Amino acid sequence: MLSLHQLQIFHTAAESATLTAAAEKLYLTQPAVSQQIRNLETHLGTKLFERSRRGIELTPAGRELLTYTTQILRLVALAEASLTNINKIADVQAVVGATPNVGSYLLPQWVQSFRLQHPNITLIIQTDTTSGIIAAVSAGEQLLGFIEGEPDVQQQAGIEELVLEPLPHRVIIGREHPWWGRESVSVAELDRQPFIMRQKKSRSHEWLDEIFQRHSVAPRIVGEFDNPESLKQTVRNSTSITVLPLRAVEQDIAAGQLAALTVDDADLTRSLRLIWQKDVVFSAVTRAMLGYLAATYPNITPLLNPPGTE
User: Fold this and answer.
1) pLDDT confidence of residue 306
2) Cα distance between residue 28 and residue 239, in whole Å
3) Average pLDDT, the chain
4) pTM
5) Which end of the chain is more exposed for a tag (fewer CB within 10 A), N or C?
6) Average of pLDDT values for 163-174?
7) Which contacts (CB < 8 Å, 24+ apart) does range 248-251 have?
8) In what helix (H) or strand (E) does residue 56 lie, and over which residues does it extend?
């Protein structure tokens, strides 16, 4: 009889370009994966993969087995998600991804409150650019991802997404800037201003570049950083400006250290998005996290019903 272990190895190999890549995902050696595939082919009396220098490719029999295996593993995942009592399991860790702004100003308070409800679950937060978070979620390395703005079109095939809320952004200045005391500026006034931005290739940088080009504005970029605290600190102690989510500077504004200006003739609103791996069955841990967030974002609630259980 086929074993679940064999089917898991076969399924991972079928979705990988090479047996070496499959072995890395499974934390096995490449010879061990090859042996399991050979054993499976011997048991079934049919060839499942064609092997070449470029990698592996499923045979017609392999494609048929993959269809069955996908259904079997999905049923196993559904059973586990449905029957697991999240409060009775031993300490577990769950990896969640977030872009820097979200990871700095939203997730910490979520994690703290979530841990009060589920002290046996440790959430590990990994921050990266939008593209990095999408890649990690697509690969199954992170259970969920929280990003700002729109995913890259080329990366959307591997993920599902849900808009949670708008994220208003503002032009941020320190007390030394000549605009201190103003409430708004025009987009044209940003031209040639000393500007602090996120690093190149980040979606935040690309988003602002698109706005600048659309309005024929060319700020003078004097610094690039990979985290919002560095942007705030630089602006706080200089006459440079930056653009950040309003949530990221609320405490600084209250303390009189920074000011947030609206832009009269340009929309600086992005969206907070939840992303997850396409066609995945949420684990009990993931469902617990989603259940917690649903109190704040009710549109998450439909995700708590695993597909196939309606």
Assistant:
1) 55
2) 55
3) 89
4) 0.79
5) N
6) 96
7) 248/101, 248/104, 248/105, 249/170, 249/172
8) strand 55-58
Q: Per the structure block, which two tokens stand in for 303? A: 């995700």
Strand segments, DSSP code E, in 199-310 are 220-225, 242-245, 258-263, 269-277
Distance CA 95, CA 146 (A): 12
Give the Cα separation of 199 and 203 in Å (integer).
Answer: 9
The 10s digit of each residue's pLDDT in 184-227 is 999 999 999 999 999 888 889 999 999 999 999 999 999 999 88
Question: What's the token pair of residue 50?
Answer: 């064609």
DSSP assignment of 13-24: HHTSSSHHHHHH
Please report the pLDDT score of residue 284 as a whole number.
86
**Per-residue pLDDT band at 310 (split at 50, 70, 90):** very low
* Rounded Cα–Cα distance for residues 149 and 169 (Å): 11
Contact by Cβ (8 Å): 224, 145:
no
CA 285, CA 30: separation in Å to the nearest integer? 30
The C-alpha angle with vertex 304 and arms to 303 and 305, in degrees rounded to 5, equals 90
Residue whose C-alpha is closest to residue 235's, from 226, 244, 51: 244
